[in-house]
Amino acid sequence: MATNRKIGNSFETEFCELLFQHGFWCHNMAQNAAGQPADVIAVKGKTAYLIDCKVCSNNRFPLSRVEENQHFAMETWKACGNGEGWFALKVEDEIIMIPHFSMVALSYEKSALNLTDIREYGTPLERWLKKC
């Protein structure tokens, strides 16, 4: 059985390859020092995106998986003049993008997102790519 780290690293690599195929420059920070606050920096059209990749098990995403340093980094990223931080959630064979502010807002009312929530508050990767 694959470890969570191996599953996560595999998704980060897959995600960067998908973005690259859609004209992004990507940097996968997975190999950097432990505890980095996000997994990927992707750039396209003079816009940079800070993205954390999460693989969901059992079609659920416990909001406790968003760590304090990730909240701080994404808030600082935005305060420095960049856009919103993003979470790329892999659920089954889908990748759904959810902005950081939505994760924060949802954490006040829920402890976890189910598949319905993820689809309702997120944007399928294909649609997100068209907006970038």
TrEMBL record:
| Coiled-coil ranges from the UniProt annotation | none
Q: Catalytic activity annotated for this protein?
A: Endonucleolytic cleavage at a junction such as a reciprocal single-stranded crossover between two homologous DNA duplexes (Holliday junction)
The UniProt entry, under Pfam families, shows: Hjc
In its UniProt entry, the species of origin is given as: Dorea ammoniilytica
Tell me the InterPro entries matching this sequence: Hjc (IPR002732), Restrct_endonuc-II-like (IPR011335), tRNA_endonuc-like_dom_sf (IPR011856)
Tell me the protein's name. Archaeal holliday junction resolvase (Hjc)
